Amino acid sequence: MMTLSQMAVDILTTSDPHQKVLKSHEYSEKWFNSKVKNELIKIGSAIPPKQPSRPIKPVLLSPRDMPKRKTGNEKGRIALIHAIAHIELNAVDLHWDIIARFSHIKMPNGFYDDWVKAAQEESKHFSLLCNRLESMGSFYGELPAHAGMWSSAEETSEDFLGRLAIVPMVLEARGLDVTPGMIKLFKNINDMETVNTLETIYSEEVGHVAFGSKWFHFLCGRHDKDPKKMFHELVEKYFKSNLKPPFNDEKRAEAGIPLDFYWPIAVG
Questions:
Q1: Which domains does the chain have, with CATH numbers?
Q2: Cβ 163 vs Cβ 169: under 8 Å
């Protein structure tokens, strides 16, 4: 029986995106079924790659070289869905990576439950978005994608608190800010299939941000650190951009991120 860390590394080193999400679903089911049977899979240890394996396509471009999207036409909306699919695929890897990369740090089993569940849901999101692309005559990989999605993971690869602060509590929290606008865009053209997909993603991403906040606070408590002060220090250290409003205060609060975590360091 593979350990959970070995499963995570197997997913991270699988380049084909569809095989990656199939393995993600398979290993998630094995993990949760082992709990039901009271035969818990060992966490173990395994060395994750610096970067996850990627297919030849999509071509990855630096942010400045990415084509501008105009969502007033179908081509632009396809590009938007493609970009979201790329984010979700990276999220699959991010959630498995946090399991393997920090497996040397003893954590409660609930930590692993949360990130396996998050990875399972991100896998579902990617598949839903791929289905939408295919129904619109496109596919994941047809368009270029953002090359910088993994940079935050690399920069926090040796900082457990930093990873929790930046990935779920900054990057995924930003998704809570912008997704309502995307839902409105597709509602306005009566594309209810995309609306339903985005609403599923929106509702479940709240939980992923909440997992980040929960375990960030847990580790701060373990090390007797002030969570708000620590969050501000880590954002300043690792986040290369600025936290900019508008913020979805209601959903951020629901996910366990108080206003005084981000408003005092917001710019603009």
A1: 4-265 (1.20.1260)
A2: no
Which amino acid, residue 237?
K
Q: How confident is the model at residue 154 (pLDDT cuts 50, 70, 90)?
A: very high
Q: Dihedral (C-alpha) 17, 121, 156, 225: value to the nearest 10 degrees? A: -170
| Separation of alpha carbons 245 and 3, rounded Å | 42
Cα 259 from Cα 20, distance rounded (Å): 36
Q: What is the CA radius of gyration of the chain?
A: 18
Instruction: Please state the rounded mean pLDDT for residues 158-179.
Output: 98
Exposed / middle / buried, residue 80 (Cβ in 10 Å: 0-12, 13-18, 19+): middle
Rounded (10°) CA dihedral 132, 27, 51, 148: 30
Q: What is the pTM of this model?
A: 0.96
